[in-house]
Amino acid sequence: MADPSSSDCGGGGNFSGFYETWFEQLQQLVRQLRMCPNPPTSHDHRLAISRLVQSIMSHYADYYQVKSAAAERDVLLMFMAPWASSLERSLHWIAGWRPTTLFHLVYTESSILFESHIVDILKGRNTGDLGDLSPTQFRRVSELQCDTVREENAITDELSEWQDGASDLVGCSTEDVERKVSKLVGILRKADHLRLKTVRQLVELLTPQQAVEFLIAAAELQFGVRGWGQEQDSLRRC
Q1: To 5 degrees, how large is the angle CA 210–CA 87–CA 181?
Q2: Transmembrane segments in this chain: where (predicted)?
Q3: Could you tell me which of 63, 78, 143, 192 has the fewest CB atoms within 10 Å of its CB?
Q4: 117 near 132, Cβ under 8 Å?
Q5: Is there a contact between 218 and 122 (Cβ–Cβ < 8 Å)?
């Protein structure tokens, strides 16, 4: 795994290198998830899935740990994100993906799977996948979405307030500028905390089978956006 304790991840080139390694390891973990029996048919299968899901969650946590340390050294670099494609940056909310995107993903995947299993469902057969979310799960997803929207809006307002004070930087001392920038570090950390918390909460309310499908779908979205974005950037350079 990419070493989250490395002290060399502060510079742009070093963090870019860390991200590339981290991204490749995420792809490897997702490949392992795809190989898991789904649905699990034994205790060993369920145990293996739980361990893999935990590995992916730890992998995400490692990323935000390193990102937080790098932001402390150069928070503006996190917003520039030179390791990301132009498309990825255009979709960023406070130097990363918007947490509420995950709820749209859950609803979309659930709808697609529900429609594909409609005959089985009408016959009373449980599929156990994301298309078979229980009423309780739907209610919890909806509650989480509302909570996340509120937190997202609060952080957005905090960033807007920070941006409104940009004129205060004119003629400021170095110390005042550093104090202003340090507030941006705090805003970014709140955004990243919400991103990680949202993934964890969704995984916790899903069954192991559903969690696997959700994490694969989330990763495939990330892989697809990054791949297409890099392809378009390459064409522009030609």
Answers
A1: 95
A2: none
A3: 143
A4: yes
A5: no
What separation in angstroms does the CA of 218 have from each of 103, 105, 108, 187, 212? 10, 7, 11, 24, 10
Helix H or strand E encompassing 187: helix 174-205
Return the structure tokens found at 63: 């990323």
For residue range 27-63, list pLDDT tens digits in order: 999 999 998 877 777 888 888 899 999 999 999 999 9
Task: Please say whether the beta carbons of 221 and 105 come within 8 A.
Answer: yes
| Helix, strand, coil fractions of the chain, as percent rounded to 5 | 80, 0, 20
- Give Cα separations from 219 to 31, 34, 204, 222, 237 (angstroms): 10, 11, 17, 5, 27
Rounded to whole angstroms, how far apart are CA atoms 54 and 199? 12
Q: List the chain residues with pLDDT less than 70.
A: 1-13, 114-128
Report how far apart, in Å, the C-alpha atoms of 5 and of each of 61, 67, 78, 196, 210 are. Answer: 12, 11, 18, 19, 32
The whole-angstrom separation of Cα 81 and Cα 16 is 8
Gap between the Cα atoms of 214 and 68, Å rounded: 26
Alpha carbon distance 22, 16 (integer Å) = 10
